[in-house]
Amino acid sequence: xxxxxxxxxxxxTNELATLRPxxxxxxxxxxxxxxxxxxxxxKENVKVQVENHVLTLEGEIRxxxxxxxxxxxxxxxxxxxxxxxxxxxxxxxxKIEASQRDGVLTLHIPKAEHAQPRRIEVQVG
Length: 125
Description:
This protein is mainly beta. It has one domain (3-63, 78-115): Sandwich (Immunoglobulin-like). 8% of the residues lie in helices and 41% in strands. It has one helix at 3-12, and strands at residues 17-19, 23-27, 31-37, 46-51, 54-62, 78-86, 97-101, 104-110. The strands form two sheets. The chain has a four-stranded mixed sheet. Strands 2-3-8-7 form a four-stranded antiparallel sheet, with no helix packed on it.
């Protein structure tokens, strides 16, 4: 069964379809910025967790049909977003910062102090 067919079947049987959010990762000198698209997911339904160097992003969306209306076609009524990443030991998972705006979750993952570039001053003499 294709992934799309599984998602559609899951939606029709009261199970939540699990979707992989689109992610962009940018490396900077001081760490990484990760953005994940979670359209329609309210802040209270977003979960960011780090356990055993695995960063897990989760979000849940439930679109309700307004009262006195009936849906004739809905590809996604409820869905769960989930994505996991293994973090390098060069990153400081205790200092991850997260924010959400317009359906986009943004994480700033700093490099550990020992992994950040440092300038060594050369002495004359």
